[in-house]
Write a structure and sequence with these properties.
It contains 6 helices and 5 strands. The chain has about 200 residues and is of the alpha+beta class. It folds into 2 domains: about 40 residues, no CATH class; about 130 residues, 2-Layer Sandwich (Beta Polymerase, domain 2). Strands 1-2-5-4-3 form a 5-stranded mixed sheet.
């Protein structure tokens, strides 16, 4: 069966629209609903939807989006410097440069004592909203991570994921974009903020 390229693009756009305006929260459900609405018998990839979602955010938010991205990257850098001992890496949409309304700052840290992260943040008066352990099963291996949900001084959402120290050297694949989730370390983020503060990191 040949795939109608134009229809596939329309399905990706519709799925992205559902996600952007909050009608759906998960890519899978958004793609299925979009395909059903448009009478398509195939689904676009997560990457195709993500790229459309980025376009929609740019169309709706314009220059303010870039200003917010720079602000969020600067806030991320402050938090990462506080947690420098835990190998912090900026990930998610603030790393990618694909933020939209409601996006938060995602930072991964690596430690076998996640409560130390909480203590460090509290000592610096970072507003912590809640904490929670989560487990995921990947290829028969159960991985646990400790999530800290907080708020920055500029009222942006902040999620810090603490993983075990042995995971620091492991490569992770991005489920949305399909590439390696490299992220930005402190020095890399500092350089980006000086040279190209709104740079995007998308698969080539």
């Amino acid at each position: 069966m040949t795939v109608d390229f134009d229809l596939k693009c329309r399905v990706a756009r519709e799925a992205a629209t559902l996600l952007y305006f909050g009608a759906e929260k998960e890519y899978k459900q958004a793609k299925e609903k979009a395909a059903k609405t448009l009478g398509a018998h195939f689904l676009p990839s997560n990457l195709e939807v993500a790229l459309e979602l980025d376009k929609i955010a740019e169309e709706n938010e314009g220059a303010k989006r870039k200003e917010r991205l720079i602000q969020m990257r600067k806030e991320a850098l402050k938090i990462m410097k506080l947690l420098d001992a835990y190998c912090p890496v900026l990930i998610g949409s603030v790393w990618r440069g694909t933020i939209r309304q409601g996006s938060d700052i995602d930072i991964a840290v690596y430690t076998d004592e996640p409560e130390e992260i909480v203590k460090t943040l509290k000592a610096e008066r970072v507003k912590i909203l809640k904490t929670a352990w989560t487990t995921v099963n990947k290829r028969g291996i159960t991985l646990a991570s400790f999530h800290i949900y907080a708020e920055t001084s500029a009222n942006h959402g902040l999620e810090i994921v603490a993983r075990s120290s042995e995971e620091a050297v492991k490569k992770r694949k991005c489920e949305i974009f399909g590439d390696e989730m490299k992220g930005l370390k402190v020095q890399e983020l500092e350089k980006i903020l000086k040279t190209n503060p709104t740079q995007q990191f998308l698969p080539s």
